[in-house]
Design brief:
Number of domains: 2
Largest sheet: 9 strands, mixed
CATH superfamily of the largest domain: Zn peptidases
Low-confidence stretches: none
Number of helices: 13
Helix content: 25-40%
Number of strands: 20
CATH architecture of the largest domain: 3-Layer(aba) Sandwich
Radius of gyration: 24 Å
CATH topology of the largest domain: Aminopeptidase
Mean pLDDT: 94
Length: 480
C-alpha cells in the first residue's frame, strides 16, 4: 500500500468546502479569503495560534492548517511528520486529500510524509490492515511541485523497504539479484548478474569465503545507468552490502535476539539499488554504476573460520579473527572491482557495525573517507534536505594500525574501540579512488514506527543518495 500524488488544476475557492484539504499558510489571515463563516475562521485561527496548526472536522469533511515559518518552510521535517500524522488519522476516513499552498517545498514535504507514512508490508498477511483504508491519493494544485520526482523517490524508498523486510526464506542472494534485474529492466538500466562460477573465476575470495557456510550460491549484481546525454566524465559508483541474512557464521551471534533482525543486513544493497532506480526513472543525465555483492552468512557446510587467511580479489591477504565481520569481506571485493571503472567517486552503504548505531542511534549515520571535503559537504547538504543526516567522522591512518596482522596483510576485526572507523579504514585499503563510506546500521531497520519512517525496513539512504546525485548532476551541468 502506498499513496500517490496527482497534479490537478487550481481548485476554485468555491469548491474547497466540499474537499478534505490541508492549508499551508504564511499568516493565519490568509484564511480570510476562504468561504468559511466568521465563527469557523475564528475557531481555526484560535486553535492554530496555540500550536501552529489546526484541524476542523465538519460532518466528516476534514480541514487541516499549518503555519509556515515566516511564510517559508524552514523545517521540512516537521511538515513530513505533520503529513504522516494526517495519513494516520484519515486513512479510513476519506478517499483523497488536497494540499493547498504557495510554497512547493512545503507541499512536497507534507506529501512525502503522507506517502511514506502510508507504506505497509503485507505480503505475508492473510488479513491486510490496509484493506480498510480508503485514502488512496493526494491532490496537488501547485504547478511548481515536481509530482514525478515526489512519486518516484517515494516508490524507490518503498521498494527498498520491501527488500529489507523480505525474509531470507524468500530473498536469497539469487532472488535479490533477480529482483534488481527486474527493477532495472523496468527503467531501462543495464543489469548484469555475476554468478558463483564467474565470482570464482574472478577470485573474489571475500565473497566466496563468507558464502562457504551456505547452501545458496552468492551473486554480484552490476546495475548501470548510462543515458546518452550524461554530464560526468567518469562514473559515480555505489556499492551496497548484500548480506541477505547474517548468523555471524561460526562466530555465532551470542546475545539474546541478536539474529532477529538480521534479514536487514542487506540494507545497504537496498539503499544503493533504490537510489540508482530513482535516478534512472527520473532520467538524470548522469553515469552511475551500482555493485551489489550478495550472500548469506551461516555456520554450515564448510564455513570459513576464525584463523583462516583469505586471499581477496586484489590479492590482499586477510586473517579472519571473527566471521561475524563478514560485511567488510564482501564489500572489499566489490570495492576493488570498482577500480575497473576509473570512477569519479565511490560511495558504499552498509549495515556494517554496531558501533555506528551506538554512536548516533537511528537519527543519523557516520560517514568517512578520503574524498574531497566538497563531496562530504554535498552529501551533508543532501542529508539535511532529506533529513537523512550524515556526520563525518575522522579517518586518520592511526585507525588502520588495529587492522594489521602479523601473519597477513590485514585482519578483519580490529580493536574494541571506534569500530565504525577501523572498518572503514579496512575498506579503504581496497580503493585507489575518491571514496566515502557510509555505515547505516542505526536507521536501516526500526523497532517501532517513527512518523513516516515505518517499523522494519526504513529505506534509509534512498532519498539521501538520490538528492546527492541530483546535486552532483547540477554541479556537472554548470561545468560542462
Amino acid at each position: 500500500m502506498l499513496l500517490t500524488a496527482v497534479q490537478e488544476k487550481k481548485v476554485p475557492v468555491s469548491g474547497l468546502r466540499k474537499r478534505n484539504k490541508v492549508f499551508l499558510v504564511g499568516r493565519w489571515s490568509d484564511l480570510d479569503q476562504l468561504p468559511w463563516s466568521p465563527d469557523e475562521l475564528s475557531y481555526m485561527k484560535r486553535q492554530g495560534k496555540k500550536n501552529g496548526e489546526f484541524h476542523l472536522n465538519q460532518s466528516g469533511l476534514h480541514t487541516y492548517g499549518y503555519k509556515l515559518d515566516g511564510g517559508k518552510s524552514n523545517d521540512l521535517e516537521s511538515l513530513r511528520k505533520f503529513g504522516a500524522a494526517i495519513q494516520e488519522e484519515l486513512k479510513e476516513e476519506c478517499k483523497d486529500l488536497t494540499i493547498i499552498g504557495d510554497h512547493p517545498a512545503a507541499i512536497e514535504a507534507v506529501a512525502e510524509g503522507l506517502i511514506l507514512g502510508s507504506y505497509t508490508f503485507e505480503k505475508y498477511l492473510k488479513n491486510k490492515p490496509s484493506a480498510k483504508w480508503i485514502l488512496k491519493s493526494i491532490r496537488i494544485s501547485n504547478k511548481e511541485v515536481d509530482i514525478e520526482r515526489l512519486n518516484t523517490v517515494c516508490e524507490a524508498t518503498a521498494w527498498a523497504r520491501d527488500l529489507v523486510n523480505e525474509p531470507v526464506s524468500y530473498l536469497t542472494a539469487e532472488t535479490l539479484a533477480n529482483e534488481l534485474k527486474a527493477a532495472g529492466d523496468r527503467v531501462g538500466m543495464k543489469v548484469e548478474i555475476l554468478k558463483k562460477n564467474k565470482i570464482k573465476a574472478l577470485k573474489m575470495g571475500g565473497i566466496l569465503a563468507v558464502n562457504r557456510g551456505s547452501v545458496d550460491p552468492p551473486t554480484m549484481t552490476i546495475m548501470e545507468w548510462k543515458p546518452k546525454n550524461f554530464v560526468n566524465k567518469k562514473p559515480i559508483v555505489m556499492v551496497g552490502k548484500g548480506i541477505v541474512y547474517d548468523t555471524g557464521g561460526l562466530s555465532l551471534k551470542p546475545t539474546a535476539n541478536s539474529m532477529d533482525l538480521m534479514k536487514s543486513d542487506m540494507g545497504g544493497a537496498a539503499t544503493v539499488s533504490g537510489a540508482i532506480f530513482a535516478a534512472a526513472k527520473l532520467n538524470l543525465p548522469i553515469h552511475i554504476i551500482a555493485l551489489i555483492p550478495a550472500t548469506d552468512n551461516r555456520p554450515g557446510v564448510n564455513a570459513y573460520a576464525p584463523g583462516d587467511i583469505i586471499t581477496m580479489f586484489d590479492g590482499t591477504t586477510v586473517e579472519v579473527l571473527n566471521t561475524d565481520a563478514e560485511g567488510r569481506m564482501v564489500l572489499a571485493d566489490a570495492l576493488a572491482y570498482a577500480k575497473k571503472y576509473d570512477p569519479e567517486l565511490v560511495l558504499d552503504a552498509a549495515t556494517l557495525t554496531g558501533s555506528a548505531a551506538r554512536a548516533l542511534g537511528t537519527f543519523a549515520v557516520p560517514v568517512m573517507g578520503n574524498a574531497k571535503q566538497k563531496e562530504f559537504k554535498e552529501l551533508e547538504m543532501a542529508g539535511l534536505e532529506s533529513h537523512e543526516r550524515v556526520v563525518q567522522f575522522p579517518f586518520w591512518d592511526d585507525y588502520l594500525e588495529e587492522m594489521k596482522s602479523p601473519i597477513a596483510d590485514l585482519n578483519n576485526l580490529g580493536g574494541p574501540y571506534a569500530g565504525m572507523i577501523t572498518a572503514g579504514k579496512f575498506l579503504e585499503h581496497f580503493t585507489d579512488y575518491p571514496y566515502i563510506h557510509m555505515d547505516i546500521a542505526g536507521p536501516a531497520f526500526l523497532s517501532k514506527k517513527d512518523a513516516y519512517r515505518t517499523k522494519g525496513g526504513s529505506g534509509f539512504g534512498v532519498r539521501l543518495l538520490t538528492r546527492f546525485l541530483e546535486r552532483k548532476t547540477e554541479e556537472w551541468k554548470k561545468t560542462k
